[in-house]
# Entry
Amino acid sequence: MLSPLDPIALQRLLDQVAADAPSHFGEGKVADYIPALAEVPPDGFGIAICDVQGNVYSAGDGGKAFSIQSISKVINLVIAMQRLEEDDIWTRVGREPSGQAFNSIVQLEVEKGVPRNPFINAGAVLITDILVSRIMSIHWVLREQARRLAGNPDINFDARVARSEMDHKARNASLAYLMKAYGNLQGNVDEVLDLYFHGCALAMSCVDVARAFAFLANRGVSPLDGSVVLAPHKNRQLNALLLTCGLYDAAGDFAWRVGLPGKSGVGGGIVAIVPGQMSICVWSPRLDTYGNSVAGLRALETLVNGLGVAPLG
Ligand code: GLN
# Structure
């Protein structure tokens, strides 16, 4: 077991994990259903840790910006949990694992337009609908939230990625229209999708993401500036949701292999939370069939074993 407070050993472990990553570069493939993502060189790897004191460690391309994609669903949900009443959110979206692909429409019809959770696409689009209807200048609010959480004023939307997603919106639009048909989604579908796609198109590095989500490891308090991001009970609820739903229909396998709350995105990023200790972000673009980074998952497994962190016992 390695003390997370031992910076030299921690850095050595990260360097080791980054050096091992290329052995998995042949596995999986880059998301190509969003053309702008298909252009990303497939064989990169980055990793970063932010501990609850705010210390940051990174290796590989840990400082290189990537498209955070579904990791943005957590930022959207944080904004909703900060600003809205519980009933405004949880009467319209569930809190159960879906057991279905992140972009599946099957369950949504059976369950009358109420998405299982906020981390599958339908649920995230629904959260975006709530934000659009309740919050002025929401694109600005979203970008500011990302910047403030990460402590990086240079974070921005990648306009090309957002446009590419809008140009290939058919599946997400179909989810949105089905929820509208059931009366759950209330706004204009294209306006809602525009915000959803801009969130997905936020460009952040592993260092940014690890810093941005370190509050989740610290009972809702940002270790960067001491601000309260979420009250402790909401922070616990969000971590619970990340553990059960953060990796879609691979959430069970992720809990088995890594044992941490986490969230993945089809840009190849995965963020994982070690409650009381640190947040970790890994990035590598090649994905498995569930849409999760192959080398990223392997790196997280190696890292948690090396660190000896095991909040589930
Ligand atoms: N923008 C992607 C989509 O809507 C996000 C999916 C993901 O990262 N899993 O399909």
